[in-house]
Amino acid sequence: MKAKWYLFIMVMALSLLLAACGSDSEAGSSGDSGDSGGETYTVATDNNFVPFEFMNEETGEMEGFDIDLIKAIADEAGFNIEIESMKFDGVVAGMQSGRYDIGIAGMTITEERKETIDFSDPYYDAGLMLAVSADNDEIQSEEDLAGKKVGTRSGTTSETYIRENHPDAELITFPGIVEAYMDLESGRLDAVMYDVPNVQYYVANDSEGLKTAGDILQGEQYGIAFPKDSELVSDVNEALQTLIDNGTYDDIYEEWFGERKYGTESSE
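Below the sequence we write its predicted structure tokens.
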């Protein structure tokens, strides 16, 4: 009798354990898209490129324009995503090696990158801009960078631009752009050059005594990245165009930038 009762207890415990495991497997991981019933792809993204992708310290989840956009694209295309954040260099390398399926990180489409990476249609128009101390009247534009200490993020188009166009400036690169802004605020740099939306956002929201200087430099476009010859490119392009046409893209754009890029009606 005791043996039968013990067996009954064991069976019930095993049943409860399996039920709990089943419940856990249905929950999406932090920052991932819901289960659409399709394939699951890994998305590599930058770990700190405000307002495109950044970690919400309160929720522990990635947020930003890029994050919302890739989730909407995944929903429209009928696949699931798992988001992994890393330094920008890791996103580029991950696309080149095929380690990740998709990369979205405010990545500028360049001819050099297109040799080893495939891109979606452009999804954001960008460029480069200077930030300087608010009391700096000496640097009015890029023409005033000779002999100045100019910081930017390593591995980016802004680094390439400074090297090619301002060899007489002292270029200092950082693994993250926030470190460059901090050195500018502390007086260790004379200027920072980086992507327009990030410079404008930081100056307006997070800086202590910084301002922008000069005009927008080198018009650029961001694209979603893929390993070479990826079959996902056409599906993502089709989904992206649908989101533009039905107003979903503008809904996301307005949430992060305060205006509607294409002037479409809200999808809601």
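Residues 1-30 have pLDDT under 50 and may be disordered.
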